[in-house]
């Protein structure tokens, strides 16, 4: 239905008596709110309500974006709308409710707000200086969180190493640009004291909990419905001030209130990501063996830490994933998470992975050059051997089983590596500058309850499934994992059909409604197949056992004599004895014909949470082939290869397209996407006329290969795949471009690699 354009999105919904919200936004990055005059706006046609921060604060409890296990983390309290001051340009300050969106926007222009502009905190180094201007005076400084990892003895290793390579990396902040923008309809019914929220979100149960707690409504009286979602990539996980405001506006008006962000609003209110400055070095032995890494990551997160998952997770995962594919043991890392007067940053597809991979893999290439090794040879020497598992990284991550060596071997064969290198050398003699970049990666997926449970957030790591046979013999599966266009319904339906022994088209999968689906964490961190799929598998197996028990009673057969195949109960010889539809008919309508004490249980509920390893880590390797025009700075991406290991592959087509989509987002970060700010904290390219996203004509053929190393923590054996493409695409591209520039003695360590930056690196401008 999605491919046919028949999806049903929040934007499509119209409820009786529905009104629309618009927001007046701060024109300043940092400003005190002196006064608000809304009298003229209140008298305008169609206006139903104008609400300020004080109005909403009376009914909504504040929140902070901190987690207990990030010791020392701090963030100022947040409300739907600010009361005293605005802390980024584009922050919603006043809410207007009217009969139409156009009327609400017209009234917003008539609201008069007097601002007193304050010094904006923009530069991450200046923000950390003693006496710096502060984003939040009550915190005392602009540091949200610090972390340090140290295995000890690092300085001695670097002092005695044969080679040391180091670099300062800059990563431009960018944003999700989903096909469907953020959208919400809040419908508070005062007669029943019930709140229903139609919400374009990945995590309906998370928001059910948050709306209940912050607005003081019993959780059972809050329903969150997530219909079809036009992309999310993590962006729709987070609490946004406008969303909380819309819920409050519905409570204040007693009517459904709808808000859909337009593109310009999205750029100044959707979370951004990847705003990092990383200084890193690597120590290498004379033969090219990696000995140690030393890292300092400063990441800027905007004015608040996002709620409830925080803005510290990205930087935390950067320092913990750096070096993950390699077998060195000496590591030191410092992380500083810094407030600034910009849009909040937080978790976006492949949280921290692209930064960690780019830093690691660029240093590996630099070390290979120092040691006189080919980049692929350097990796073969240093990657953790496939027979070395289980093992633990220097940062404390425990790996069950990965396949780096096998993936590298497969990649070289797919891309015909030696031929490409020979071709590259020949073309350089003719003035054609091509580059080949390789990047190995480790991806976090299937997080266990400890991932957020220890931090105090009510974010579930388990998922639930209710699987039932209908009276007509078809099957319904209600499941807590959600669909954002990545194929959740398809794979869950496949798993249920496979385990029950029925045709896929006989299974209807229902997601995204807290009123009917069982409680669960839903879809994030690539947990759809690995956790949701395992839940569905176990529920379907239990249901099959129940069906066969009823069939055995009908047929007077013994346990174990029957099976379910192609929708039929069959005997030991494979002969069809009874259709599933007939079993259902008897169970639902003629239970009196069953033997005494036979209770037909054709509905099964099951919940599953990961046990064993804290994460089901996946791995893989990517390569990028580019051609550089040294006169213009333009790069043509010729081809991209990915070999990934996501454990058991359920649907090869969905896996491949997940990887391809992720690669495109990674290449977008490498060459095009960046949220640019001026010195006053104004976003200067906040529209699709100025913010570049990758288009089909710029993307190369993306060839994908697979290795399967199933996790033994589940029956299904599936790990995650949704972030694999994004994790290493920009790293591979960074290495490829640097390889193409090598004859000029030029390097670049900043993404996106725009033509202007490449020309500066080449000394052309």
Brief sketch in words of this structure:
Helices cover 29% and strands 24% of the residues.
- Beta-strand percent range: 15-25%
Question: From the helix content, strand content and strand pairing, which structural class follows?
Answer: alpha+beta
Identify the overall geometry.
globular
Sheet of most strands: 7 strands, mixed
Segments where pLDDT lies below 50 for 5+ residues? none
Number of β-strand runs: 31
Question: Using only CA atoms, what is the Rg?
Answer: 28 Å
- Mean pLDDT, rounded to whole units? 96
The percent of residues in helical segments reads: 25-40%
> First CA to last CA: what distance?
51 Å
Could you state the oligomeric state of the chains shown?
Answer: single chain
Number of discrete helical segments? 20
The side-by-side strand order for the widest beta sheet comes to 3-5-1-13-10-11-12
């Amino acid at each position: 239905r999605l491919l046919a354009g028949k999806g049903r999105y929040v934007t499509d919904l119209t409820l009786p008596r529905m009104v629309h919200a618009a927001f007046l936004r701060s024109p300043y990055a940092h400003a005190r709110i002196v006064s608000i005059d809304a009298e003229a706006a209140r008298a305008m046609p169609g206006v139903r309500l104008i609400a300020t921060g004080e109005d909403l604060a009376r009914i909504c409890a504040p929140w902070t974006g901190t987690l207990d296990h990030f010791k020392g983390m701090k963030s100022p309290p947040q409300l739907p709308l600010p009361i005293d001051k605005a802390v980024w340009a584009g922050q919603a300050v006043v809410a207007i409710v009217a009969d139409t969106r156009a009327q609400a926007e017209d009234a917003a222009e008539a609201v008069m707000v007097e601002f007193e502009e304050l010094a904006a905190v923009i530069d991450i180094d200046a923000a950390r200086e003693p006496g710096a201007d502060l984003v939040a005076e009550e915190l005392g400084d602009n540091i949200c969180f610090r972390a340090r990892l140290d295995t000890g003895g690092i300085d001695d290793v670097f002092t005695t190493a044969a080679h040391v390579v180091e670099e300062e990396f800059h990563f431009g902040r960018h944003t999700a640009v989903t096909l469907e923008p953020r959208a919400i309809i809040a419908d508070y019914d005062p007669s029943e004291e019930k709140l229903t929220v139609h919400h374009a979100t990945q995590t309906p149960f998370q928001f059910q909990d948050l709306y209940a707690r912050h607005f003081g409504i019993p959780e059972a009286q809050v329903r969150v419905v997530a219909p079809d979602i036009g992309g999310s990539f993590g962006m729709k996980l987070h609490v946004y001030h406008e969303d909380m405001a819309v819920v409050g506006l519905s409570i204040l008006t007693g009517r459904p209130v709808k808000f859909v962000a337009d593109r310009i609003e999205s750029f100044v209110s959707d979370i951004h990501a990847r705003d990092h400055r990383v200084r890193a070095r690597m120590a290498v032995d004379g033969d090219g063996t990696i000995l140690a890494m030393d890292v300092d990551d400063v990441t800027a997160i905007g004015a608040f830490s996002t709620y409830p998952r925080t803005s510290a997770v990205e930087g935390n995962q950067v320092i913990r994933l750096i070096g993950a594919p390699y077998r060195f043991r000496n590591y030191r890392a410092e992380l500083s998470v810094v407030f600034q007067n910009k849009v909040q940053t937080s978790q976006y597809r492949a949280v921290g992975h692209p930064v960690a991979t780019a830093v690691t893999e660029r240093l590996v290439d630099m070390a290979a050059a120092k040691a006189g090794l080919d980049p692929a040879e350097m990796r073969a020497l240093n990657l953790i051997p496939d027979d070395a598992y289980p093992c633990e990284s220097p940062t404390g991550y425990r790996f069950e089983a990965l396949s780096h060596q096998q993936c590298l071997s497969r990649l070289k064969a797919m891309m015909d590596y030696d031929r490409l290198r020979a071709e590259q050398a020949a073309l350089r003699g003719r003035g054609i500058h091509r580059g080949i970049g390789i990047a190995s990666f480790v991806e976090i997926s299937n997080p266990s309850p400890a991932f957020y449970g220890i931090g105090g957030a009510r974010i579930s790591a388990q998922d639930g499934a209710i699987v039932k046979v209908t009276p007509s013999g078809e099957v319904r599966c209600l499941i807590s994992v959600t669909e954002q266009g990545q194929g959740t319904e398809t794979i869950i339906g496949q798993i249920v059909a496979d385990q029950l022994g029925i045709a896929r088209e006989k299974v209807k999968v229902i997601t995204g409604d807290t009123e009917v689906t069982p409680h669960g964490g839903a879809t994030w961190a690539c947990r759809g197949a690995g956790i949701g799929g395992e839940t569905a598998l176990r529920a379907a197996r239990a249901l099959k056992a129940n069906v066969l028990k009823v069939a055995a009673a009908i047929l007077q057969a013994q346990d174990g004599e029957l099976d379910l195949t192609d929708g039929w109960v069959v005997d030991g010889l494979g002969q069809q004895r009874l259709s599933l539809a007939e079993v259902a008919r008897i169970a639902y309508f003629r239970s009196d014909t069953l033997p005494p004490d036979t209770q037909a249980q054709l509905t099964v509920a099951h919940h599953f949470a990961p046990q064993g390893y804290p994460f089901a880590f996946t791995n893989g390797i990517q390569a990028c082939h580019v051609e550089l025009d040294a006169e213009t700075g333009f790069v043509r991406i010729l081809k991209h290869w990915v070999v990934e290991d996501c454990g058991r592959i359920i649907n090869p087509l969905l896996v491949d397209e997940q990887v391809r989509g992720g690669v495109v987002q990674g290449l977008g970060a490498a060459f095009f996407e960046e949220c640019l700010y001026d010195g006053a904290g104004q976003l200067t390219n906040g529209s699709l006329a100025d913010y570049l996203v990758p288009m089909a004509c710029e993307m190369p053929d993306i060839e994908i290969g697979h290795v399967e190393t199933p996790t033994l923590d589940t029956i299904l054996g599936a790990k995650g795949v949704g972030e694999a493409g994004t994790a290493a695409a920009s790293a591979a591209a960074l290495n490829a471009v640097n390889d193409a520039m090598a004859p000029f003695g030029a390097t670049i360590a900043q993404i996106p690699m725009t033509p202007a930056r490449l020309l500066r690196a080449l000394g052309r401008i």
